[in-house]
């Protein structure tokens, strides 16, 4: 395939594509260009947001593509929260190097500058379909919830309550949150369904009062913090929760018109690297960020099976075998002149992905042959998959200036 051409201009950054570049990849880079322009334009807004808030946020999220719109669901712009993603959402071992790096770097950057970090340990589930929970957690939502709650407690103990960590459930049916406090829960769907307030209070004031009940001042997470700190949390976190209520109402209205949209594991491409707080175009699954020691073997193979199956079924729908591609888009941020080092890292990851595909795809195809959907493919497509699947794994290593987030392919 023809090499992607890049044009970088400080005032007008753009991408130029060869005509035969895979559409599923071309659309991703076109989306990134728009995201980059928006991110640069919002710089002053992010600064203003931080000046007007005591709380700042960090989220631990699963790589599941159904959680790709999480920031929109809580009303935050990219660049405000620190977002980490991994299969299952969080690494329970606090001694895990990347976990320590994530937590302490963010804590140092913001909290030591006068902010209070609110850290959300999330788990996800489908309220309507129990078998559409977290595949990495074997769809065991009860255990997943319990693990998330315990993980948040360990974080508070380990960091000596210098952050405020608690668990939050995300129902992927409508993106509604359930906040687990030390003295009860806050279920946002109940607020979304209750559009009439008998006490004539604003939504934010009702949520603030509810938070004060489940996170009592001078007790639990706030027992060694001032009442002013607790009040700032109640007011500001209520703002985030109110955004979720409005979003859920909008989502439920859309679903009432069009029916369920968020099926599990529908991705046609995989993203590796950072940033992880963006909302990628539909059909993208996250994997792991660069620097994660698990970025090898079976973890890279996770989307191989999913995307390979989806790509084959996409070909059946479109009738175009050129759509049988398994793309991995990789981007690593650089700063302070370390671009060359990051380019080498991106190329190393791309090479590792190709090696993993060569090792794992034959076994994945053997599993496919024992499924009902495999028999629904045409004979020509089955032969194509067995002969060329490894060659259809495409890697697109990139780097980006963390100030602009514009992905620039390297070779």
Keywords:
411 residues, alpha/beta, Beta-carbonic Anhydrase, Chain A, 2 domains, six-stranded mixed β-sheet, five-stranded mixed β-sheet, 44% helix
Overview of this protein structure:
The model is unreliable at 1-14 (pLDDT under 50). The chain is globular. The chain is built from twelve helices and 13 strands. It has 411 residues and is an alpha/beta fold.
* Alpha carbon gyration radius: 22 Å
The number of domains is 2
Count of beta strands: 13
Fraction of helical residues: 40-55%
Strand fraction equals 15-25%
Outline the fold blueprint.
Blueprint: E1 5-7, E2 14-16, H1 23-41, H2 43-51, E3 55-61, H3 70-74, E4 82-85, H4 97-110, E5 116-125, H5 141-158, E6 164-171, E7 176-181, E8 184-187, H6 188-193, H7 203-214, H8 227-258, E9 269-273, E10 284-286, H9 298-318, E11 326-334, H10 339-368, H11 372-375, H12 379-388, E12 393-401, E13 408-409
Parallel strand pairs: 3-4, 3-5, 5-6, 9-10, 9-11, 11-12
Antiparallel strand pairs: 1-2, 6-7, 7-8, 12-13
Helix pairs in contact: 7-8, 9-10
